[in-house]
Design brief:
Layout: E1 2-4, H1 17-29, E2 35-39, H2 45-49, H3 53-58, E3 62-67, H4 71-82, E4 88-93, E5 111-114, H5 118-128, H6 131-139
Helix pairs in contact: 5-6
C-alpha cells in the first residue's frame, strides 16, 4: 500500500494538473499496489477527474479518504465521499476537534482514524462501530 502525498493534497485547486496526471499514470502503471489518497477537498475529485479517462478509470483502484475535524465537516463531506466510485473509502479525523457521530446514517466506510483527547475518541469509536464491536472495544480499554 502506498499512502500518496501525505503532506500534500492531490485535489487542491493549486495542485498542478500535470502533477495529478503523472500520479494517476503511475497508479495505472502499478496495478499490484493499493494507493491511498487523503484529501480535504473531496468536492474537487469528480470535477478534476471526469474530464480525463485515465484519472477517472483509476478511481476504483484507489482507497480515497477525507479529513474531517467536526460534525459539520462530516455532514458536509461524507456524502460527497460516498458519491465517488473509489475502491475503498476512509475517514481521517485529525485533529478531532469535537464529537462526530456517524450512527443512524446509512454509511459504509472501510476505515476510520482519529487523533484527539480520549473523551472524543471514546464517543467516536462507540458511535461508529456496531453494538457488538463497540462492547468488545470497551473491554480492551
Amino acid at each position: 500500500r502506498v499512502f500518496c502525498a501525505s503532506l500534500a493534497d492531490v485535489f487542491d485547486n493549486e495542485a498542478p494538473i500535470k502533477w495529478r496526471m503523472n500520479l494517476f499514470s503511475l497508479i495505472a502503471d502499478t496495478p499490484n499496489l493499493d494507493w491511498l489518497i487523503l484529501t480535504k477537498r473531496i468536492g474537487n475529485v469528480i470535477k478534476m477527474c471526469q474530464g480525463d479517462s485515465l484519472m477517472f478509470d483509476q478511481l476504483p483502484r484507489i482507497w480515497l479518504g477525507i479529513t474531517v475535524c467536526n460534525q459539520e465537516e462530516a455532514d458536509r463531506d461524507v456524502p460527497k465521499l460516498l458519491q465517488i466510485p473509489a475502491g475503498k473509502r476512509f475517514i481521517s479525523c485529525e485533529p478531532l476537534l469535537g464529537e462526530i457521530r456517524l450512527d443512524g446514517k446509512d454509511y459504509h466506510v472501510e476505515a476510520l482514524a482519529a487523533m484527539s483527547e480520549n473523551r472524543f475518541m471514546r464517543h467516536f469509536i462507540g458511535a461508529s462501530l456496531s453494538k457488538t464491536s463497540a462492547s468488545e472495544a470497551q473491554k480492551t480499554r
